[in-house]
Amino acid sequence: MSQRIRRVYQITRTFLSYGLDEIVPTRWLPWSLRIARYGLFWMPNRHKDKSPGERLRLALESLGPVWIKLGQMLSTRRDLLPPDIANELAKLQDQVKAFPGEQAQQLIEEALGIDNVAEIFDDFSVRPLASASIAQVHTAKLKHGADAGTDVVIKVIRPDIRAVIDADLSLMETLARVLARHLPDGRRLKPEEVVKEYRKTLLDELDLLREAGNAIQLRRNFEQSPLLYIPKVYSDYGRHNVMVMERIDGIPVSDVDTLNALGVDMKLLAERGVEVFFTQVFRDSFFHADMHPGNIFVSRENPHDPSYLGIDFGIVGTLNRDDKRYLVENFLAFFNRDYRKVAELHVDSGWVPAHINVEDFESAIRTVCEPIFNKPLAEISFGHVLVHLFNTARRFEMEVQPQLVLLQKTLLYVEGLGRTLYPQLDLWKTAKPFLERWMQEQLGWRAVVRSVKENAPFWGEKLPEMPNLLYDALRNHRGRMEQQQQLLTEIRNNQRQQLRTMGLAILSGAMLLSTTILYVMHQPVWLVASAAAATVLCGIGMWCRTKA
């Protein structure tokens, strides 16, 4: 608890010392926060000479990787932020303050079990090539093997970073529990599940062996594709905190001036970015979930037929078959302006409660989405669209799907890239043909052919066993039928016995009642005795049948 309190104090002091409270309009702050700000008078703004964007960047950078990741995502939302702030936050993508190169070299030597990097690498650069929130990279050349002389980059995790991440994540989990308990929308927004998912993805980034596996998978998925190139990973030198991979020579996707100077087809490049995203999600169900501009480059070769280069594969996302199917159907219904279908799909998938009025939900979706169709990205205010969508979700009790958070974040990155590269891009027209083709492959005759191809080896292996399997199935079926017939006969006999017992029980009760009435009415003794004897005989018969 004391650690959390110290971290809360550190975050508050950082925000106030960089004057971030001055960036937020006063009218947006509740009176309690304004009074608290006056109470913390010993934490003045110490960076008044810097611009708001620079102050925000420095504050996030000083708080560590969790906050830097937040800044990286915000840097792609130029429709939500002023240009000076967006430009400053873009520096967080690959210009985070580096730790000493000598310390990085020592970490590499310890991880690989060598006395000096020169045993494995030539031309090792102590000066880092780039530095990010989780790790930094150094350049070198391989010294041995078939790839000797190949330019590589060595990625090494920042030292002692786990403690900082754990502290921030613990604080976020506490805040999520408070929000889930006290916010009216806490249950619907599922803040605890979202933070849990974020914890998993962030901690996965600390394991470079996992990142190497992700890179190898992505490289295999796009091995023959002109859309995306993934550098080769040298697994022999991989460790949990060190990764070695091929060095690429590309232009940062955010360097629009250089891309234009080289004559790159920006429209085709933007369209291919959309295609890369949908290919990863819907063809492979395995997508790069950290596609901010610092991790995406453009090849210098063939500017009229451009391709992307990708790095940093610490965060990847996956989708199961059901979620993928519902997403495609939602996208297609959305592109076809079939808002009724969109509403029904949300109810069918359980994302919206079944008691919601579908007609009202359909009307609300139409109100939000219709104004943005047939418009290029430059003319769409996604900030306003998001606000309206969140309000609609709240009104119709739509629950947050934690498994889709990474996908939503990646889609924001892709849209931000498209806005930067080619603002006139028609996102809907670019994506619709791809999704229609995917649906045809999943549901049409192609799906049948693919299923036959996939299962043919298994069927071929089992074909010689079919006569025996058929004989065993028929024999087992006959045995089961005999058992069912025997069980049915037993059930019928039990029912008959129960009916006879019930009849005797009713008769015994009637005789007892008759005996009582005869006795009360002072009837002849022989008549009362006869009735009593009949009652006893019926009772004995019922008892005997029960025991049987």
UniProtKB/TrEMBL annotation:
One of its GO terms (molecular function) is protein kinase activity. Pathway: Cofactor biosynthesis; ubiquinone biosynthesis [regulation]. Its EC number is 2.7.-.-. InterPro entries: ABC1_dom (IPR004147), Kinase-like_dom_sf (IPR011009), UbiB (IPR010232), UbiB_bact (IPR045308), UbiB_kinase (IPR050154). GO terms for biological process: regulation of ubiquinone biosynthetic process; ubiquinone biosynthetic process. It is found in: Cell membrane. Belongs to the protein kinase superfamily. ADCK protein kinase family. Belongs to the ABC1 family. UbiB subfamily. Is probably a protein kinase regulator of UbiI activity which is involved in aerobic coenzyme Q (ubiquinone) biosynthesis. PANTHER family: CHAPERONE-ACTIVITY OF BC1 COMPLEX CABC1 -RELATED (PTHR10566), PROTEIN ACTIVITY OF BC1 COMPLEX KINASE 7, CHLOROPLASTIC (PTHR10566:SF113). This is Probable protein kinase UbiB. The gene is ubiB.
